């Protein structure tokens, strides 16, 4: 049959809509959506004719294969209605996974956000005198209590915090930073580039592995506006090294009447060593050491929403609050509500491991992870069938988001080892796990697929998800 004849056999939009109506598709997905999907399907059919000189498989020899047509329409409509940002199970072993949304919020934060989304709120309104208030006020007061700062300013993320600190305090001037601390965080956040954007001149001192106090001292000129420390959060320089501590730098800053600021990256408001986790620098000790400003993220170890927190001297915070960039970088009411509720939890530190999902995950004991793995092995074996060897084994997780780069987190993972040794079956399995309603994201490493238990909460949902995948496996119609 010539292509022209084939085009002639394509059904009309009206006929397909009629069939779709018969199967209640417009009722379920809306008439407009259904029409869009029908036109899309016809476009695809014309492409098949053009490229392969044959009809698509949903048009049989005599007529339309109606069940197949409806399945194609429904699948497409189903897919289109899925949001771009979907819930997943993060079993990658990286708890604060930037690509998977970093920290999960505490229930108190979720409740607070819901309130301000639904109702008017005192975002910039003072109930005490019915006058304009400041949107960062409540959080600043909490931080004063929690970390001993004089004041605080909240912006969109920590990258924004660094940018506005530099732009406010050192535009057109020199900022001294150790060569060993010129970090790139990823996603084009590099300290030298941020300096340029802020209009500052970067003065690098020391060598990559060693920087001494005298290096800073000798670099100070009448153009110097700021001494800066950057936490080397995603790498570690080991061996013959030397760095100047914040407290030493603060001493020098005082002598020279220069402000000292620190970009902490993650920062932790609690001493992680008390939870048998590797210690991470704390903003309160920086403040106690006399730092003028310290900045850190809201959604890393703090466990709150994406935000950048700048805490420190009142007069410097005041300057930042009045910088034109603040208007561009300020947070919305949802972020502020969530951050306030999260910080509020830190007033009851003994409850934190229960109430802060990030800390809950980081502190889950190995025995619990192991018990969970044992519970899940049977159902996962059912999914994997006879092609894989499954076992629960020790694995190395990490906190993620640049926190504690070299310290690994002991964990337990369920591993899938293909009996054929074929990597192809591993990728197929990974695709299958990611193809469900709630995608399950693991990690392929050393020719195995690893599902790390440390990131797994909502176990009942997980089991339901696996059972659905198993059911779909049995339903799969041979092509
Ligand atoms: C993560 C990080 C940043 C960027 O923080 P965001 O909140 O992701 O914008 C900046 N500096 C350091 C040292 C970091 O670790």
Automatic annotation (TrEMBL):
User: What is its cofactor?
Assistant: pyridoxal 5'-phosphate
Which GO MF terms does the UniProt record name? L-seryl-tRNA(Sec) selenium transferase activity
SUPFAM superfamilies, sorted: PLP-dependent transferases
Q: What is its main location?
A: cytoplasm
- One annotated Gene Ontology cellular component of this protein: cytoplasm
Q: Where in the cell is it found?
A: Cytoplasm
Q: To which pathway does this protein belong?
A: Aminoacyl-tRNA biosynthesis; selenocysteinyl-tRNA(Sec) biosynthesis; selenocysteinyl-tRNA(Sec) from L-seryl-tRNA(Sec) (bacterial route): step 1/1
Residues covered by the L-seryl-tRNA selenium transferase N-terminal domain? 9-46
Residues annotated with N6-(pyridoxal phosphate)lysine modification:
300
Which EC numbers does the record give?
2.9.1.1
Per its record, the protein catalyses: L-seryl-tRNA(Sec) + selenophosphate + H(+) = L-selenocysteinyl-tRNA(Sec) + phosphate
A biological-process GO annotation: conversion of seryl-tRNAsec to selenocys-tRNAsec
Q: Which keywords label this protein?
A: Cytoplasm, Protein biosynthesis, Pyridoxal phosphate, Selenium, Transferase
State which residue ranges cross the membrane.
none
Domain of life per record: Bacteria
Please indicate if the UniProt record lists Transferase as a keyword: yes
- HAMAP family from the UniProt entry: SelA
Function in brief? Converts seryl-tRNA(Sec) to selenocysteinyl-tRNA(Sec) required for selenoprotein biosynthesis.
Per the record, the similarity remark reads:
Belongs to the SelA family.
Protein name according to UniProt: L-seryl-tRNA(Sec) selenium transferase
